[in-house]
Design brief:
There is one protein chain. Helix content is 24%, strand content 36%. It is built from 3 helices and 8 strands, in the order E-H-E-E-E-H-E-H-E-E-E. It has helices at residues 15-25, 67-78, 92-101, and strands at residues 7-11, 29-36, 39-45, 53-57, 85-88, 105-112, 118-123, 129-134. A 4-stranded mixed sheet has the order 1-4-3-2, with helices on one face. A 4-stranded mixed sheet has the order 5-8-7-6, covered by helices on one side. Strand 2 (29-36) and strand 3 form a beta hairpin. The longest helix is centred in the middle third of the chain and has 12 residues, at 67-78. The protein is globular and about 50 Å long. 24% of the residues are buried.
């Protein structure tokens, strides 16, 4: 089988703040920006991975979600309780400095983990946890 990851979704409550972070701080490129029925989806990706995309979507964007479900999703997002994404980088410390200087909420400074990677963690403007890991040199 030739199964590959194409897209993953991150819930955001303010697309403009999310764009400023993912595009201007992390260096992802905007690939699509679509509005539909009062909602917005922004597709982004790393220039180094043209086949993989992150879609920034409103919380509770599922058309089958009830108003109560949408409210619950918005509340979980506000608490930072939704899952985020793990990125790789060649230089964890330099990336940490850049992201910290942007004012992002630091969750973990660069740390050598016992399982062989060096990583750090932040929250994006919506509260999603993002981890950045550097694999050891081979």
């Amino acid at each position: 089988m030739d199964v590959k990851l194409k897209q993953c979704f991150i819930a955001v409550d303010d697309h403009d703040k999310a764009l400023a972070f993912y595009r201007d701080v992390l260096g992802l490129e905007v690939r699509n920006d679509v509005g539909f029925e009062g909602m917005r989806w922004v597709t982004m990706g790393s220039p180094l991975q043209p086949d993989v995309e992150i879609v920034l979507e409103p919380p509770g964007a599922n058309p089958d979600a009830s108003p109560a479900d949408r409210q619950a999703m918005a509340e979980l997002l506000a608490k930072g309780m939704l899952r985020g994404v793990i990125f790789t980088t060649e230089d964890c410390d330099a990336l940490f400095d850049r992201v910290r200087e942007s004012g992002a909420d630091v969750l973990q400074e660069p740390t050598d983990q016992p399982y062989g990677v060096r990583d750090c963690a932040f929250r994006d403007p919506a509260g999603n946890q993002l981890r950045f890991l550097q694999r050891p040199a081979r």
